Amino acid sequence: MPRRVALEGSHAVSEAVRMADVDVIAAYPITPQTHIVERLAEMVANGELDAEFICVESEHSAMSAVVGAAACGARVFTCTAGQGLELMHEVLFVPSAMRLPVVAVIANRALSAPLNVWGDHSDVMAIRDCGWIQMFAENAQQAFDLTLCAYKVAERPDVLLPAMVHIDGFHVSHVVEPVLLPEEETVREFLPPSEYPFPLDPDRPVSMGCYGPPYIYTEVKKAQEVAIENSYEKVLETFKEFKDVFGREYRPVETYRVEDADMLLLMMGSYAETAMLAIDALRERGDNVGLVRLRLWRPFPAEELRNVLRGVKAVCVFERAISFGMGGPLCAEVRAALYHLPEGERPKVVSFVGGLGGRDVSVEEFEAMLRRAKERVSSDELEGFEFVGLRE
Amino acid sequence: MMGIIEVRIHGRGGQGGVTLAELVAHAAINEGKYAQSMPSFGPERRGAPVLAFLRVSDRPIRVRTEIKEPDVAVVLDPTLLDIVHPTEDLKNGGIAVINTKKSAEEIREKYKIDRLALVDAMSIAKEILGRNIVNTTMIGALLKATGIVRFESLEKPVKERFGNALGEKNLQAMKEAYERTKIF
């Protein structure tokens, strides 16, 4: 029987990693990720988890260490946030190209300057193209569940890609809430020991991370692209298997009260839970609004997104990041996914940016955003983006 | 059935406000309720005014923002009353739970609060714990003022956090505060 316990979001991740019975952890502590690795270090020290914990001197080394360990066939874990993810940046592109099933959890955090340890998605957007499978969790339960799903899908022999779970710094990482923890045996059955097919082994030598001159580099990149495109179906299968075992259902695109909606709010991360209350309040007053959350960020679920958004009058994209000089990066991808829909089925899209550097967006602000989105749609102010809660 | 109860804890860095919120959240969740606790998101400095937040409800809690208009304001350090005015944005009918030696008349006149729960938690903590850390003591006052969780539900989380011996003392201080808290 699953146990219902109070857990901090960070510790829910640590529990998932412990139950996944990882072999090697390498990490460097950084706010707001610290509690995850603190707890894991404690588990290793107390003998609750039989793993090698490598205390590295930087995030660059953390990723390098887990890449090496994964190449030997170990089940590995690392996690970081914000500046740490940036320092890791160079090495992030290696496991995806080398097809190593590394798993990382990121406690999303803003980027300097000014120095800010609080949450937003600036760090996510900066590593968008690193070739990892990427998912967003909105609460501690999802953080636990999706960490298990990350291992399950990453290690499939027909996937072999690194997978990343994003949890909002502080708003998930530091919140204590109820979590259903499954029996350890159930997790072990769902996630049997990793059997990486090509481990480094002196008796059966293989080459990894070779030089890729111009005559082969393009083909390697094509193969990598095919791999992540194909992983989409495997993510779906993984979510299905997860539901069959644990009862909770995940989809690449998840919806809330979208029936008959003429305006959909679209976003990623934990603020979606607060936004649901705004949807409820507006529905109460007769506004036909609904909510769409991207659970899967890479591979980008364009087809499923089109199916959800097709024929809706307008989409209001809210995001916690800016691509300076361009606008909201999530909005740009949503617009691109809708571009080829025929006229009449293609929603108008308006863009809002907020929740930067940890600033809350209240239920009332989400309501106001949706009212403003309606105005912008009816007056055809579709270009650019507006800030939420900006003090001028 | 009860709706969502929103509690904001005012303390100074190092006084254990976050621990207070976490312990009550653990107790509520162990009772089968829904609860959520969070710190005032950020690097805390010892001695500086800090916040912690606690929500308890019979139904799942979705809102994840800091609490702007609490039903309950718990004030661990009475000197904060003049610095951050923690009771000014209490919801209508809200209650302030304050660690103070002052009388209800004095507090009410100065800060214009309708509903008060007062206890001299500092004396209790010094007497029982031997130090002026009032977070667990003030849980007793919060429970008396709100009935937010049952007293027995704190036993497990407190002992898990502090160990059996120290946990027992903290529970004793909590019980003492529960009994000595006066509601006005």
Task: Give a structural overview.
The complex is a heterodimer of chains A (392) and B (184). Chain A is α/β, with parallel strands linked by helices and 392 residues long. Chain A folds into two domains: 3-246, Rossmann fold, CATH 3.40.50; 253-387, Rossmann fold (3-Layer(aba) Sandwich), CATH 3.40.50. Helix content of chain A is 41%, strand content 19%. In chain A, the strands form three sheets. Chain A has a seven-stranded mixed beta sheet with strand order 3-2-4-5-7-6-12, with helices on both faces. In chain A, strand 10, helix 9 and strand 11 form a beta-alpha-beta unit. In chain A, helix 1 runs parallel beside helix 6 (140-154). Chain A is globular, with a radius of gyration of 21 Å. The model of chain A has no long low-confidence stretch (mean pLDDT 97). With 184 residues, chain B is an alpha/beta fold. Helix content of chain B is 36%, strand content 21%. In chain B, strand 5, helix 2 and strand 6 form a beta-alpha-beta unit. Chain B is globular, with a radius of gyration of 15 Å. The mean pLDDT of chain B is 94. The interface between A and B is medium-sized, with 26 and 24 residues.
